Amino acid sequence: MKRHLLSAADLSRTDAELVLETAAEMLALADRPIKKLPALRGRTVVNLFFEDSTRTRISFEAAAKRLSADVINFAAKGSSISKGESLKDTALTLEAMGADAVVIRHGASGAPHRLAHSGWVHSSVVNAGDGTHEHPTQALLDAFTMWRHLGNLDGRRVAIVGDVLHSRVARSNALLLQTLGAEVTLVSPPTLVPVGVEAWGVETSYDLDAVLPKADVVMMLRVQRERMQGGFFPTPREYSRRYGLDARRMATLQDHTIVMHPGPMVRGMEITADVADSDRSVIVEQVTNGVAVRMAVLYLLLSSDSQEDTSL
Ligand code: CP
Fold it and tell me: In CATH, what number is assigned to the domain containing residue 222?
């Protein structure tokens, strides 16, 4: 296996299917009385989080611990970053402590790539979300969740709905789901479509009601108001009316269609509480699957004999 996981674009179909199959084995451990494996005993995983996170940070920690690795959690808040320390010096400090894998979330797009190719660290680097760029393990856990509900994803229609402009989840999902044979449609207001989206190879639409009845999966995205400068257009009320998933819209879905959200979600904005808590919603399952998928990623990266400086 290769050394880093930086982008969903680096995953071939064979790579991605290996992660999903390994994740299925990891998930089966949850039914055993003893959920831990000794696979990464003596290895050290550092969670390096420069941006806030609930699901990703906790699930990487749980994943590493279930594989018996030692885990060091680093959060920018409360660290020497506030005194002006650079990414390089933070990385050299981790290297001095013997990290085998660094899981990094950073507000700057490309920060994990910089770390992986800098020569500052010799560990595997896993992108846990960089700016508005990518979140490959989220895409893997989303694909795993779809795969468990729908089987093979060839020809399956996935609608990704909302603030695509600021969403690293949308980009990683669009890349990975197409690798796995799915057809992706991005649905968003014209003001929240990224420049150059044509290069993603997906369909785009402004009309949620036209897309929903054909979808096998509906993935709702949060509006990332914290990344918007100069206000938010359309207004929250108008956004919910045109792009929110509520009970009326849910009734137009096919019987087998599942509703997903990567979290964190804002109930009442992009999704109503009754839809988020409905039988169609697999949002909590996504979180459970996230641990299994991240176990698979850490296991495949760290148990490999390959030392080549390439990405997974
Ligand atoms: N989906 C996701 O990345 O959630 P967190 O920001 O809570 O990690």
Answer: 3.40.50.1370
